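User: Some background: our group keeps a shared notebook of sequences we're curious about, and every so often someone picks one and asks for a predicted structure to add to the entry. Today it's my turn. The entry only has the sequence so far, pasted here. Could you supply the structure so I can complete it?
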Amino acid sequence: MSKGNSVVLLDFWGSPFCLRARIALEEKSVTYEGREENLLGGKSDLLLKSNPIHKKVPVLLHNDQPVAESANIVAYIDEAWPSNPLLPTNPYERAQARFWADYIDKEVFETGKGIWLSKGEEGREVAKKNLIEVVKNLEGALGDKSFFGGDAFGYVDIIALGPASWFYAYEKIGGFKLEAYCPKFSSWFKRCLQRPSVAKAFPDPEKVHQLVLKLSEIMG
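Assistant: Of course. Here's the predicted structure to add to the notebook entry:
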């Protein structure tokens, strides 16, 4: 490790946001301790102390200094361990990467929530169409490239993989296949899953499906 020697991730296995931090750490070959939070049963004192504003995971503790918010954590990891960069070096390309990361953060998870929080079939159908539209916009950004940044896996891919880890659950609940509407995005997703960092960090899709059903009961 090139900077410090204490790295702890306050984590939750099914969180799409924690997944981003895990993938980034794996990409950088950073040895870290993952501490699982029980979000359905109560938050630890360490979490509440480390992220007093939002009280959410993930939180990265690097030499006991807390870094919160998943996109911010991924950017921090990229700077703290500079080898194998995740963000482009070109200023314009960096700005584009940040734009799409921001779009993903604002649109994908919130739109997907409509599928599992909708009480009726009509609301679910609207949410499904909205999600497909959002993913089609991401397909436009992806184009014919292997990854969002081109040939190299990077920052936007990691940001997008977070909410994409819940897509299987959305498909099961909504009764559709995203691949039928967004084939390029689905090909990108399969390509990412072949990376050792992603395969190691990724949660089991059926377990995530059960988690989403449970959340739907609690919140519905």
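Suggested note for the entry: The chain has two domains: 7-80, 91-219. DSSP finds eleven helices and four strands in the chain.
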